[in-house]
Write a structure and sequence with these properties.
Oligomer: heterotrimer
Radius of gyration of chain B: 22 Å
Structural class of chain C: alpha+beta
Distance between the termini of chain C: 57 Å
CATH topology of chain B: MetI-like fold
Strand content of chain C: 15-25%
Strand order of the largest sheet of chain C: 8-9-10-1-11-20
Strand content of chain B: under 5%
Largest sheet of chain B: none
CATH architecture of chain B: Orthogonal Bundle
Number of strands of chain B: 0
Number of domains of chain B: 1
Order of helices and strands of chain B: HHHHHHHHHHHH
Largest interface: A-B, 83 and 79 residues
Helix content of chain C: 25-40%
Distance between the termini of chain B: 25 Å
Shape of chain C: globular
Chains: A mainly alpha (332), B mainly alpha (316), C alpha+beta (585)
Number of strands of chain C: 22
CATH superfamily of chain B: MetI-like
């Protein structure tokens, strides 16, 4: 078991280095000069002044150093937690932009991912049990999982916020709300959180439900299930075993799905102007704010790797075969 | 009671969806290639397959024929702004805020969706198969290395890459987008193929083939792949649907093709131009519905195919 | 192992909590509803948006992305400027004048107090002007021309110049330089520090101060009204009605529109496509009740790279100008929310400098057929597809570029391509993100761009300086920061410099210089004026009324953009009235 863990760690470390290097490459492979963008925002019309400001900024962004040195300094500042400075929102440091945005994104992602996984799997198991449910839930599930995230967000915004006006159109909290640890503010946050959360939750839920339903059906038709039934075991027992076996791939799927849900969160935040990471990425992409893109993607890479690692550990706990050192089969 | 004799799989779904899990190919079925007649017999009787295929084919028909019957070029500014759907002047789905024909954009977007799905899904399928077969058959160091590559591609946010590429290309077409999607959405397919290959490699008939002196390539192509053919076909369908969804998301955030219109771009432009607040529902509803219809029917088709290929599921 | 009963109980409990949450969330109803306790009183709060794109960088007026409204609400200027009536308004300075050929005297108003209690005196003015000694200040070049030290006698400040003063630039500086507190600003000791200065709670002379508890860099800045303000105490301006002003960070244009419609924002300065429909149906209102709805902020130009063939030929440029259907862009792209630009390119507020005779003589009109024949007569050939080719027969295929995502410019670009085709001029679109677009423009790596670099100000000199500036390349950078079209006309540049050094009392010379420069622009066509971008301003009357309007006593600019509060933006705020009485809340 320890060897399995260590090997996993090594692979993750190598993946991390490779991904981070590619991530570093992003601003440095881009054509164009980020400092010029910066200067465009300060609107300096006097060329002499512009000259000084230009030199100033080139120096502060380390852009006058050779490429390999910039790579080295990138790792150095990474260790110190310094992710650079934003161009669009100069002089805000990237880490502060991320820190302000992360709570909102995590507040959407974690409940949406976990709840949709839980509810989806349960619904899928239910549907696999009864034909009636199967015929009603299933088409719904297919529709949901085939819906692009942003389209559902647009629809929900259109229905609930614009037409019926029962929920807010966007933002994280009401402009006149006073921040603080009060019930009022908390409830206000909740009201603004509902629609973005639902958009993510519903789509993901559909996917898990269908996946689970298919897996359980497959399990119920496998040899051991028939064998148990032929021995006279109650249906409930067979279903319980089937469910547990079907759960394994779903756990791994959770790690794979994280990347997808992040993309979904990005577009949902755009539609609802929810000030999370997704929204910041969007602004950074459309304004080619390279260092913010670099920083946020780094953050996501680390997050996804950690999540994958956690899922691997959970899988290890849940699947006894890995514990006794059997070949991990199809797991990676 | 022994542990069930099958390999646990990863849940295979596309990069954006967890759904329509494709269970492992029936390991003890030995007849997929020869049972074509039997397959067809069950195929035409499977409601899900018929329904899914029907919807997909009708959308394809619209995509092929549509641009020929549209009265206006999709990007033309016709001068009639924000017109609701009408029979006048051929603006059957109305016009946008800037006076462009929604119907023309819609059918062009449908075409683009099928192109992206076929090419993007196809490229992803090919890469996934190559990587998966090699890793699954060879095992050992090769497997570990390919595993790492898969992980890296999986973890990298594809938007970042596309951004760099987009900055260099002054004119981006639909092919660029399709190729890009193909090159970045293969990891789960590779994993799934690898898992299947592992289980099949340990089978007797493969050992026999090895003993008889066949090369690896021959073994993969002649023994392993045919046993997985149904599985591979279903995987392609999932990749197809997934590519369409990924393309829609990329278009929506502004990284779409620059010289044409697509369904995702229609959604992006409608949101940017306040179609929601101005109640121009004919602008943003059709593209989303179309994507839902195509991708949904593909998934339904997939499950139907699964039931056709896998007799064990036919009882449900 | 958790028993089934226990699991069920947990399940019921969770569902109950969920039900309560749902009721609470939906029960409060309405998108704009708020709770009474623990929130800023909506009826006494002015909520604005449309200025702050992206996180708020801080409280430094010298750096972009500073908190919207800071200059004007907190840090004020010596004078203000009303572009609609072309008058200067005495503000922190009681009087300013050119007291000699090389001398400028400022008399500071008495009785002005900083928010930390200190009195505002002449030495504060000198302190702020002295900040221009750093080369990161945009007024550094004016500082070079000052004789030091600046003479201060109590409330009188006398500036002596080494050479002829730059009258236009200096005057522009006086109403744009924000007065920051020397107590806080004394930490600025280097050029670098001028850009990193960021006081936690800025001290200013203005009517508002920062409410640090409501400040959230990702979302909003909250300004709270001070108990005393010199302007209302001395009867110079009414005391502003809003107790709080909250400016929201921009997210997207459409969310702004949704917020405006829901009554969440009172004043919005975003470009909202299709807003003309909402004005016509009475949901929002704008400065003008009908087209053009908005005042004009700057000119959008088609900028040709005059260093390239065939754009180096004024005849070709003129033909290009004649082939553009600007009216179609105004009606179809902008739904009449903008105005077609005068061929002189000058904004409507500078009408007094526009010589209509010259415009009639040299200005161009939309006539693609005439454009084509003019080119053929000048010696241009046609190529195999019937489009215009160079005089040596080589193909013409110009690239036009606008920043990606600026959808109204993208539509305008497409319309330009279509209409130029009629005159036989072949143009194709190139898509670039904003930074790439900008760097290509600065390095001269483009054929045509749409640009709007020069803003409304108190003199057309700012336009001429941008168009005719020489030398083109700024030393040490490899790029240009003005004169993007790379037009070399030494005599025009000489005239521009002369305009800057002409005393404002010499109106005849000013008029003749402007006439001369307009003529150069219209005859040689270094830039093709297209339309005027608007001072986008949408207002709702749910909570506030008495907004500025085109007709009547309140012809103020309803805009919070940088540089606008010290025009007549602050008048907008001091004149609005609440729609609810204080008792009703």
């Amino acid at each position: 078991m320890l060897r399995y863990l260590l090997r996993k760690l090594l692979i993750y470390a190598l993946t991390f280095v490779a991904a981070v290097t590619i991530d570093w490459g992003i601003p440095h492979l881009m054509p164009g000069n980020p400092v010029l963008t910066l200067m465009g925002r300060i609107q300096i019309q006097n060329p002499q002044v512009a000259q000084h400001v230009y030199a100033n900024y080139m120096r502060s962004f380390n852009l006058d150093l050779p490429l390999w040195k910039q790579y080295y300094y990138f790792w150095v500042s990474l260790v110190h937690g310094d992710l650079g400075t934003s161009i669009l929102q100069f002089p805000s440091p990237v880490s502060s932009i991320i820190l302000h945005a992360v709570p909102y994104t995590l507040g959407l992602l974690i409940p949406a991912t976990l709840l949709s996984w839980y509810v989806g799997n349960k619904l899928g198991a239910l549907a696999a049990r009864r034909k009636v449910l199967d015929n009603t839930l299933l088409p719904f599930g297919y529709l949901l999982t085939a819906t692009p995230y942003m389209w559902l967000a647009i629809l929900m915004s259109f229905l609930f916020a614009v037409t019926w006006q029962v929920l807010p159109v966007g933002f994280a909290y009401d402009p006149t709300a006073v921040q603080g640890w009060t019930w009022t503010f908390g409830l206000d946050l909740l009201r603004h959180w509902v629609l973005p959360f639902l958009s993510l939750f519903l789509v993901a839920c559909g996917g898990w439900a269908i996946g689970m339903r298919n897996l359980i059906i497959y399990e119920l038709e496998s040899d051991y299930a028939h064998y148990l039934e032929s021995l006279g075991a109650p249906r409930k027992l067979v279903r319980k075993y089937a469910f547990r076996n079907a759960l394994l791939p779903q756990i791994t799927g959770l790690a794979l799905a994280l990347g997808a849900v992040i993309a979904g969160a990005l577009v949902t935040e755009i539609v609802f102007s929810y000030p999370g990471l997704g929204y910041q990425i969007y602004r950074a992409i459309t304004n080619e704010d390279y260092f913010v893109i670099q920083g946020i993607f780094l953050f996501i890479i680390v997050g996804v790797l950690i999540a994958n690692f956690v899922v691997d550990i959970v899988y290890m706990i849940v699947d006894p075969r890995t514990r006794i050192g059997m070949q991990e089969g199809g797991q990676a | 009671m022994s542990v069930p004799d099958r390999v646990s799989t990863t849940t295979v779904g596309d990069d954006l969806r967890i759904g329509a899990a494709v269970p492992p190919a029936p390991a003890d079925e030995a007849k997929p290639v020869s049972g074509l007649r039997e397959t067809l017999y069950f195929a035409v009787r499977n409601k899900k397959l018929i329904f899914g295929l029907g919807v997909t084919l009708s959308m394809l028909a619209i995509a092929i024929v549509g641009p020929y019957i549209a009265r206006h070029p999709p990007l033309d500014y016709g001068g009639q702004l924000s017109v609701p759907p009408t029979t006048r002047d051929g603006y059957w789905l109305g016009t946008t805020l800037l006076g462009q024909d929604v119907f023309a954009q819609f059918v062009t977007g449908l075409r683009m969706a099928f192109v992206v799905g076929a090419i993007g899904g196809g490229i992803a399928a090919i890469i996934g198969m190559v990587v998966g077969f090699t890793a699954g058959y060879r095992g050992g160091i090769v497997d570990e290395l390919l595993n790492m590559v898969t992980n890296v591609v999986l973890v990298i946010p594809t938007f970042a890459l596309l951004l760099v590429i987009a900055a260099y290309l002054q004119v981006r077409g639909i092919m660029t987008e399709a190729i890009f999607i193909g090159l970045t959405s293969w990891p789960w397919a590779a994993r799934a193929v690898r898992a299947q290959t592992f289980s099949l490699t340990s089978r007797d008939f493969v050992s026999l083939a090895r003993l008889s002196g066949s090369s690896s390539r021959q073994i993969i192509f002649r023994e392993i792949a045919p046993n997985m053919s149904s599985y591979l076909f279903m995987m392609f369908i999932l990749l197809f649907g997934g590519a369409i969804l990924i393309a829609a998301t990329l278009d929506f955030i502004g990284l779409g093709p620059s010289n044409t219109i697509s369904l995702g771009m229609m959604m992006q432009l409608s949101v940017q131009n306040a179609a929601l607040q101005l109640h121009l529902w004919w602008w943003f509803l059709p593209p989303g519905l179309a994507i839902m219809a195509i991708v949904g029917s593909l998934y339904v088709m997939n499950v139907g195919l699964d039931e056709v290929f896998n007799p064990r599921l036919r009882s449900m | 192992m958790v028993t089934r009963r226990r699991r069920r109980a947990v399940g019921w409990f969770l569902s109950a909590v969920g039900a309560v949450a749902v009721v609470a969330v939906f029960g409060t109803g309405g998108a704009g509803a708020t709770w009474q306790a623990k929130s800023y009183p909506r009826a006494q709060t002015l909520i604005t948006s449309g200025t702050q794109w992206g996180n708020i960088a801080g409280m430094n007026p010298y750096v972009g992305n500073n908190a919207a409204g800071m200059i004007g609400l907190v840090n004020e200027t010596l004078l203000r400027y009303d572009p609609l009536h072309n008058t200067y308004i005495s503000w922190l300075a009681k009087s300013t004048k050119w007291s000699g050929p090389k001398q400028y005297t400022v008399v500071v108003r008495s009785g002005v107090k900083w928010s930390d209690g200190k009195v505002f005196t002449g030495s504060d003015v000198a302190f702020n002007v002295n900040l221009a000694r750093f080369n990161t200040s945009r007024w550094n070049n004016l500082y070079q021309n000052l004789k030091l030290p600046i003479q201060v006698k109590g409330n009188t400040v006398i500036f002596n110049f080494k050479g002829t003063p730059n009258y236009v630039q200096w005057q522009n500086m006086i109403w744009n330089m924000p007065m920051i507190s020397p107590v806080q600003g004394k930490t600025i000791k280097t050029a670098q520090e001028l850009t990193t200065y960021n006081p936690h709670n800025p001290v200013g002379t203005g009517p508002y101060k920062l409410d640090t508890s409501g400040y959230d860099v990702t979302t909003r800045v909250v300004w709270a009204k001070r108990s005393h303000w010199w302007a209302s105490d001395q009867g110079v301006a009414p005391s502003p009605a809003p107790q709080y002003i909250i400016d929201l960070v921009n997210t997207s244009n459409t969310n702004s529109l949704a917020a405006v419609l829901a009554g969440v924002e009172d004043l919005n300065n975003n470009y909202l496509p299709g807003v003309n429909k909402l004005v016509d149906s009475g949901k929002v209102h704008t400065f003008f009740p009908k087209a053009p709805y908005m005042l004009s902020a700057n000119t959008a130009w088609l900028e040709p790279n005059t260093a390239r063939v065939p754009l180096n030929d004024p005849v070709f440029r003129r033909a290009l100008g004649m082939s553009i259907d600007i009216n179609k862009i105004v009606t179809d792209d902008y739904q009449n929310l903008v105005l077609k630009a005068s061929p002189s390119g000058l904004l409507p507020t500078w009408n007094k400098y526009v010589n209509s005779k010259l415009v009639a003589k040299y200005g161009f009109k939309f006539d693609p057929a005439a454009a084509k024949s003019m080119l053929l007569k000048a010696g241009y050939k046609t190529d195999s597809s019937g489009m215009i080719a160079n005089k040596d027969g080589s193909k013409i295929d110009l690239a036009i570029s606008v920043p990606q995502g600026w959808s109204d410019w993208e539509a305008a670009r497409d319309m330009i391509i279509a209409s130029a085709k009629q005159a036989g001029i072949r143009i194709h679109a190139v898509v670039q993100g904003y930074p790439t677009w900008q760097s290509d423009r600065n390095t001269g790596d483009f054929d045509l761009v749409i640009d709007n670099a020069y803003q409304i100000s108190d003199s057309p000199w700012t336009y001429w300086n941008g168009i005719f500036h020489l030398p083109i390349i700024t030393t040490g950078t490899g790029q240009t920061f003005a004169n993007y079209e790379r037009y070399t006309n030494q005599s025009a540049w000489n005239l521009t410099q002369q305009l800057d050094k002409t005393s404002p009392s010499d109106t005849t010379t000013i008029a003749s210089l402007n006439n001369a420069l307009e003529t150069v622009l219209m005859k040689d066509v270094p830039m093709i004026p297209l339309w005027y971008n608007g001072i986008w301003a949408q207002m709702t009357s749910k909570y506030w009324t008495n907004w500025p309007a085109a007709v009547g006593a309140r012809q103020y600019i309803p805009c919070m953009w940088n540089g606008y509060l010290q025009m007549t933006g602050i008048d907008t705020i001091t004149h609005i009235k609440s729609t609810r009485t204080a008792a009703g809340g």
